[in-house]
From TrEMBL:
It is found in: Cytoplasm. Residues 148-235 form the GTP-eEF1A C-terminal domain. The gene is EF-1alpha. One of its GO terms (cellular component) is cytoplasm. Its main location: cytoplasm. It comes from Calyptra hokkaida. Pfam families: GTP-eEF1A_C, GTP_EFTU_D2. This is Elongation factor 1-alpha.
Length: 235
């Protein structure tokens, strides 16, 4: 393939007779071709988790004249429709969605991966903020976590980390300081098996299971149920 000369980009090139093409097998069948555009066409879109309960972390909240309060964010799981009664965790504010828009076009439903703005009734801009998570009040709504258990891998940290260490966590769109309340065990990074119970401290290269306590209310979910809301970075 040559992007510079355009060989095997949009149509098969005569300059590379040695290249026999490629072939890939899916459950849906075989796909084969010689050029880049065919390879792109053969990629199957990932399955969207529309069957799970709604989770939409807020990236921002706007006040738009003539419309009102418009939270903005990406649907991670579930479906958002006008008329849905949503709850914003961890503040536990409940309201109705009046309309849903993406790229200035009204949507009948927003699915995972869509970056949308949605207009809500009787909620002021000051009540909502980045890091809150919207969910369906009638279907497993999101809640704030008083504490949570997490597996942490220390990639690069000067010195040692012991109980009481309080870094800032970036979890979905939230940035909140969380305290390492208890380092329960050191584990093997590859197998996840416990190597030491209740260690005094952990350092770069270690993996551990710890109990974290957020300094402010934080909405976090189990990684098994909602992967985008169950992973975080510590800085």
């Amino acid at each position: 393939i040559s992007g510079w000369h355009g060989d095997n980009m949009l149509e098969a090139s005569t300059k590379m007779p040695w290249f026999m093409g490629w072939m890939v097998e899916h459950k849906e069948g075989k796909a084969e071709g010689k050029c880049l555009i065919e390879a792109l066409d053969a990629i199957l879109p990932p399955a969207r988790p529309t069957d799970k309960p709604l989770r939409l972390p807020l990236q921002d909240v706007y006040k738009i004249g003539g419309i009102g309060t418009v939270p903005v964010g990406r649907v991670e799981t579930g479906i958002l429709k006008p008329g849905t009664i949503v709850v914003f965790a961890p503040a536990n504010i409940t309201t109705e969605v009046k309309s849903v828009e993406m790229h200035h076009e009204a949507l009948q439903e927003a699915v995972p991966g869509d970056n949308v703005g949605f207009n809500v009734k009787n909620v002021s801009v000051k009540e909502l903020r980045r890091g809150y998570v919207a969910g369906d009040s009638k279907n497993n709504p999101p809640k704030g976590a008083a504490d949570f258990t997490a597996q942490v891998i220390v990639l690069n940290h000067p010195g040692q980390i012991s109980n009481g260490y309080t870094p800032v966590l970036d979890c979905h769109t939230a940035h909140i300081a969380c305290k390492f309340a208890e380092i329960k065990e050191k584990v093997d990074r590859r197998t996840g098996k416990s190597t030491e119970d209740n260690p005094k401290s952990i350092k770069s290269g270690d993996a551990a299971v710890v109990i974290l306590v957020p300094s402010k209310p934080l909405c976090v979910e189990s990684f098994q149920e909602f992967p985008p809301l169950g992973r975080f970075a510590v800085r």
